[in-house]
Design a protein that fits this description.
The strands form three sheets. A four-stranded mixed sheet has the order 2-1-3-4, with helices on both faces. Strands 8-7-10-11 form a four-stranded antiparallel sheet, covered by helices on one side. A three-stranded antiparallel sheet has the order 5-6-9, with no helix packed on it. It has helices at residues 2-28, 49-65, 91-101, 127-137; strands at residues 35-41, 69-75, 113-116, 120-123, 144-154, 157-167, 172-186, 196-210, 214-219, 230-238, 244-251. The longest helix is centred in the N-terminal third of the chain and has 27 residues, at 2-28. The protein has one domain (35-251): Glutaredoxin (3-Layer(aba) Sandwich), CATH 3.40.30. α2 (49-65) links the parallel β1 and β2 (69-75). With 252 residues, the chain is of the alpha+beta class.
């Protein structure tokens, strides 16, 4: 009988130890909350400037509060036919927006459109919806993070980004975006003709690779961006549902 009781005590102890180990594992892999805002916009769209201004305002507030909010402004190309060819537009960014439409409800493509952490979409000028989406995102720990993020620049070579990941990044992609921190454009034609537009965190190049413990990505456009006006944003995105689970940013 005593041996039986002893076995029960040992079993309970082992189970408790296992639970503690599992809890410790989860805590060790629960990273700081982040929010990645992706704005799909165009200088040829008269509805977009308010969304561009909202993005700028949000970035100012994030810097003041020290929030881990990252912003990417993608200029789509499908409004170039309205008379103004957006100098920052790229079909690749329109394709990315269509990729989201294939996963998110209601599955529509429009400008301005904001998507937060790859899971919530809404009209890009809707401040209330943006605030709610950011609040929700910043209450959830991230599943993965960049352990190291090193950028090497050389005037004669593409910028090189070397990174190491930690956490749960299975079935994910690593995306590296080169952004202009601020761009000012005098629009001479189209729906915004005569206006001077300011855009922040304008994506100039976007490269994707399958996530692994470590990796290296080259950005060929980095040397064409004015120094002190550029940064590189890295983020980890699940392949199936497009949820973003980790991010980092460094200025050049």
């Amino acid at each position: 009988m005593n041996h039986y009781i002893l076995l029960i005590v040992i079993s309970i102890s082992l189970a408790a130890s296992g639970m503690l180990s599992l809890t410790s594992f989860h805590k060790a892999n629960a990273f700081e909350p982040i929010a990645v805002i992706e704005l799909f916009t165009s200088q040829g769209c008269s509805s977009c400037p308010p969304a561009d201004k909202l993005l700028s305002k949000t970035l100012v507030e994030a810097r003041e509060e020290g929030s881990k909010i990252f912003a990417l402004s993608y200029h789509v190309d499908y409004w170039n036919r309205l008379g103004w060819a957006d100098p920052f537009s790229n079909k690749k960014y329109s394709d990315r927006q269509n990729m989201y439409a294939s996963v998110l409800n209601p599955g529509t493509v429009y400008t301005p459109q904001m998507i937060v952490n790859g899971t919530q979409e809404f009209v890009g000028s809707d401040e209330n919806k943006l605030d709610n989406a950011l609040k929700e995102a910043l209450q959830q720990n991230s599943d993965a993070a960049f352990k190291n993020f090193v950028i090497t620049t050389n005037p004669e070579k593409p910028a090189q980004v070397q990174y190491e990941l930690e956490g749960d990044f299975q079935n994910c992609n690593v995306l590296i975006a080169l952004v202009s921190l601020k761009e000012t454009t005098e629009v001479k034609r189209g729906e915004n003709s005569g206006r001077t537009l300011e855009n922040e965190n304008v994506v100039r190049e976007l490269v994707s690779a399958k996530a692994g413990p470590s990796g290296e990505i080259n950005l060929r456009s980095a040397n064409s961006i004015i120094k002190n006006n550029a940064a590189i944003v890295g983020f980890i995105q699940q392949s199936d549902n497009l949820k973003i689970i980790g991010a980092v940013m460094k200025a050049l």
